[in-house]
Amino acid sequence: MGQKINPLGFRLGTTQKHHSFWFAQPKNYSEGLQEDKKIRDCIKNYIQKNRKKSSNRKLESDSSSEVITHNRKTDSGSSSEVITRIEIQKEIDTIHVIIHIGFPNLLKKKGAIEELEKDLQKEIHSVNQRLNISIEKVKEPYRQPNILAEYIAFQLKNRVSFRKAMKKAIELTKKADIKGVKVKIAGRLGGKEIARAECIKKGRLPLQTIRAKIDYCCYPIRTIYGVLGVKIWIFVDEE
């Protein structure tokens, strides 16, 4: 029997770090955990909502069909505007939220951070603690599995062949300094009645080596045929 384990949890404490840093009494731990989930969900919903608004404005402002098709092509780059990681650090009177994002175009707009802080204050009802949100741009976006998964999702929703989308995602990793990548997609591929899984691998991927820094992502894609699952492993480096 195959004993499979999440590559991130397997390397926690060696090459992977915790995404939340805080201490709580055992009776208050569940409340802190739920608060973290609310913060992360609120940030993701805010970016998704504003991304839809900005894309709708582009389509409304452009009247000619040539410009619209050009925008659809360039919108494939908006997949890199996905959040790769949200770090939460809690102190007695302050909650520090660090958002790691590919290309933070939406959050760099005037008043975006203040609006997000107001939404978070309403969501978590923190009266005694103040929120401090900071944005960190990811140096190599195509080194992040979340961004590649979002890119594949965008291509599949635009009726691109799943094999072509997987190969293009692997080509994008050439821009980043990595040693290996594996992309696996499962479900009703191409609208076929029987679900199956397809996998493409390039380079090395030592999953059993704990000192190997491997990033992993599992991402669901909702299509007209049903839900597809994408898994991406990226072998970054070996310590």
Automatic annotation (TrEMBL):
Gene: rps3
Similarity comment: family membership: Belongs to the universal ribosomal protein uS3 family.
Protein name in UniProt: Small ribosomal subunit protein uS3c
Gene Ontology CC entries for this record: chloroplast; cytosolic small ribosomal subunit
Intracellular or extracellular location(s): Plastid, Chloroplast
Keywords attached to this entry: Chloroplast, Plastid, Ribonucleoprotein, Ribosomal protein
Main location: plastid
Parts of the chain that traverse the membrane: none
Disordered: region residues: 50-80
Ranges of residues in domain Small ribosomal subunit protein uS3 C-terminal: 152-234
Species for this entry: Holcus lanatus (Yorkshire-fog)
InterPro entries for this protein: KH_dom-like_a/b (IPR015946), KH_sf_prok-type (IPR009019), Ribosomal_S3_C_sf (IPR036419), Ribosomal_uS3 (IPR057258), Ribosomal_uS3_bac-typ (IPR005704), Ribosomal_uS3_C (IPR001351), Ribosomal_uS3_CS (IPR018280)
Biological-process GO terms, alphabetical: translation
Self-association and partners: Part of the 30S ribosomal subunit.
Pfam families: Ribosomal_S3_C
Lineage: Eukaryota, Viridiplantae, Streptophyta, Embryophyta, Tracheophyta
Gene Ontology MF term list: RNA binding; structural constituent of ribosome
